[in-house]
Amino acid sequence: MKRRARVAALFTFLAGAALSAGQNPPAPANPSQQPPPPQGPTFRVRVDYVEVDVVVTDQQGNLVRDLKKEDFQVLEDGKPQSINTFTLVNIPIDRPDRPLFQADPIEPDVKSNEQPFDGRIYVMVIDDYHTNFGRTQRVKLAAKQFIEQRLAANDLMAIVHTFGPSDASQEFTSNKRLLLAAVDRTQGRKLKSATANRTDEYYRNRDFRQTGDPVNDPEDAERAFNARSTLDTLRQVSDWFASVRGRRKTILFVSEGIDYDINEVIAPTGSNHLGASMILDSTRDVIASATRANVSIYGIDPRGLTDLGDESIEIGAFPDDTSTGIGTSSLHNELRLSQDSLRVLSDETGGFAVVNRNDFSTAYQRIVQDNSTYYVLAYYPPDPRPGRLHKIDVRVTRPGLTVRARKAYMTPKKTEPAKTSAKDTRTPEVREALDSPLPISGLGMSVFAAPFKGNPPNASVLLGVELRGRDLRMSQNDQLQISYFAIDAQGKVRGGNTDSLTMNLKPETRTRIADNGVRMLNRLELPPGRYQLRVAAHDGGGGNIGSVLYDLSVPDFMKAPISMSGVTLTSMASSARPTVRPDEQLKMVLPASPVGNRTFPQNDEIALFAEIYDNSASTPHKIDITSTVTTDEGKVLFKADDERDSSELGGRSGGYGYSAKIPLKDIAPGRYVLTVSARSRVNPNPTAERQVRITVGNPK
After folding, report:
1. Residue 48 confidence (pLDDT)
2. What is the model's pTM?
3. Cβ(664)–Cβ(603) under 8 Å?
4. Cα gap 286→297, rounded to integer Å
5. By C-alpha distance, which of 50, 49, 44, 42 is closest to 27?
6. DSSP letters along 240-276, please?
């Protein structure tokens, strides 16, 4: 797939702008009467103010956190500007929720937007075009080190590859397992160095060349194409990032640098080196896009300190003819130019380049600090005409401090609003929420999903959406719209629906929803694979809007010897929330509708249901199924065992329905791990397991 299509696939439904709960500020005719932009980090669609993220450090490199609005000066094209908004952003670093008895955190089976997004947002661009195949593993290690050690539980990251299949990339997620898997799909395909190619060319043609004839790189055109492709990817990601406002946005550019000599803009007679001017233009376009979008690029060279040993091995002996310009100096010049490309992209956009270092830990810590504590300044531009490039200079009055911020911005060009199909019944608010890369918290909601075996090759995925009652107005004839769809690894939409509810409710029902919220259940038919569920809800009466992103993995239930569906839970206390559309398939196996709530009072009882799928039924055997509730230290407080026989399936592949009830009266309030596991007695005793984080609270 072409590079443009790959990027489009990753951001298929992220091309729209992020949403804010409020409306855009009007643009008064008199600039002096303009209202101040909103305080604090927020996310907006079309705005008419200029936003600048500023990182300030002292002489020891420590972040400076005590500056005031009066300590800053902003100059646009050399003229001082009035700062309308000044905010110090200080983002916490949340640790993953990991039980002490296991190494990895438990992936949540419920996602909620009830806490507004308060993390960092990164796009990691892995440059396969400029990664030496033999150093692919080093690139993976450098990328994984950031994800494993520096990505906090409250952060979001997407991964884009400059080359590879469309499913190599990863949509925005905080799930480290998915991000690491995307890193593992890196395929280094950097061309042999131009010096090595020219050396080969010299020896191939030395008996025929005349003194002074240029020695060309036969892969020069492909080298230029690769460089432009990588820069176009960076530009497209930067353009998309412009939709997120009020928060520092970061591109982690993992690359050995642009592999093309841009110094020789005018090629001499006979030379095929014709791409320098186009690559310079592409570099300027990236910087313009990044500065316009207020995006910081951090170039990360995974080679670390290098003596060019890998490149030198490719060259047996340099030509004796020094007029060719081929030698150790040209090899080192390639290294310098590639690293300079990382420095330029980083320095011009407010980031910094990580080059010539083997220890990435300190640099990664600085990147996290840059994106955790910074100032956001906003001012109204004196020249709002679209498509104009303006220089920005941010200064502080306190001496001895270093300021890093973007150095320019371009006013957005006028764009026509996207056309929508007449068949699209979604409200504009819902469409924008589904396009947002960040969850929106105006309407509190929780989403849970559980895949079950369906009609092959599809699975039947139970999707539950629970809305917070106090966020709904529920006046007579108010409309509540809930919309959802799944995006697969190729960026294609797989299933979805939009439901509209008219809130003509009895007084007692309205009171019950206000106190407990409301639940809606649906089913999605999806083939095995990796998906992101995007769910949005809009209260047309009160105007509140909410959205949630949910990472879903659908197993191939027909392939593994033994596998397990998702685990559904319910309880008497949780069933107080009314369900608009109960699930017909679970009515007979659960005492109430499945719930997304994972906090239960101590005087409650949990009922669970799962299905175990057995593809080894041709051999008579038994299946052991166990449910446990375990403390974080690994102490088992509850255990229920069950045994099933393959004879129940009549010698065919099939599934066993499994139910269990867990009384909580003897379990002290606290955090626990609920585990459902199944083990086949057929050698080599394959197992399947699901874990759910639950909390036991005080009795009600």
Report:
1. 66
2. 0.87
3. yes
4. 10
5. 49
6. HHTT--SS-EEEEEE-S---S--S--SPPTT-----H
* pLDDT at residue 575, rounded to an integer: 86
Structural tokens at position 23: 């409306």
Q: Helix/strand/coil (H, E, C) string of 170-211?
A: EEEECCHHHHHHHHCCCCCCCCCCHHHHHHHHHHHHCCCCCC
- Chain centroid to Cα 645, Å, comes to 43
Q: What angle do CA 456, 459, 464 make, to 5 degrees?
A: 155
Do 511 and 452 contact (CB within 8 A), yes or no? no
Token pair, residue 268, equals 């001499």
Cis previous bond, 37, omega within 30: no
The one-character DSSP state at 441 is B
CA–CA dist 192, 182 (Å, integer): 25
Peptide bond into 26 cis (omega under 30): no
Q: Which of 597, 592, 461, 445 is nearest to 108 (CA)?
A: 597
Q: Compute CA 9 distance to the chain's CA centroid, rounded to the nearest angstrom.
A: 14
The end-to-end CA distance of the chain, in Å, is 57
For residue 586 the two structure tokens come to 């679970």
Task: Give, in order, the Cα–Cα distances in Å from 294 to each of 190, 350, 374, 450.
Answer: 30, 9, 13, 39
For residues 116 and 144, what is the distance between their CA atoms, to the nearest angstrom?
Answer: 27
DSSP 322-353: GGG--SHHHHHHHHHHHHHHHHHHHHTTT---
CA gap 563, 417 in Å, rounded: 47
Please say whether the dihedral angle defined by the alpha carbons of residues 36, 42, 47 and 53, taken in this order, is positive or negative. Answer: positive
Other beta carbons within 10 angstroms of residue 695's beta carbon come to 12
Residue 592 per-residue DSSP state = S
pLDDT (0 to 100) of residue 247: 79
Distance CA 230, CA 171 (A): 19
Tell me how crowded residue 517 is: count the other CB atoms within 10 A of its CB: 22
Please identify which residue in the block is written with the tokens 């438990």.
Answer: 106
Sign of CA dihedral 643, 648, 649, 651: positive
- 662 near 538, Cβ under 8 Å? no
Q: What are the residues facing 35 on neighbouring strands?
A: none
Task: Give dist(CA 375, CA 41) in Å, integer.
Answer: 10
The per-residue DSSP string of 522-563 comes to EEEEE-SEEEEEEEEEEETTT--EEEEEEEEEE--TTTSSEE
**Structure token pair of residue 515:** 């106190």
* Distance between CA atoms of residues 499 and 246, nearest Å: 32
Q: Give me the average pLDDT of each 10-residue run along the chain (700 residues).
A: 40 34 34 38 50 92 93 95 92 88 91 92 97 94 96 95 90 95 96 91 83 87 96 94 82 96 83 92 93 92 80 78 85 92 95 93 95 92 84 95 88 71 86 90 96 95 96 91 94 91 88 94 96 96 95 95 97 91 93 96 97 90 96 96 93 93 96 97 94 95
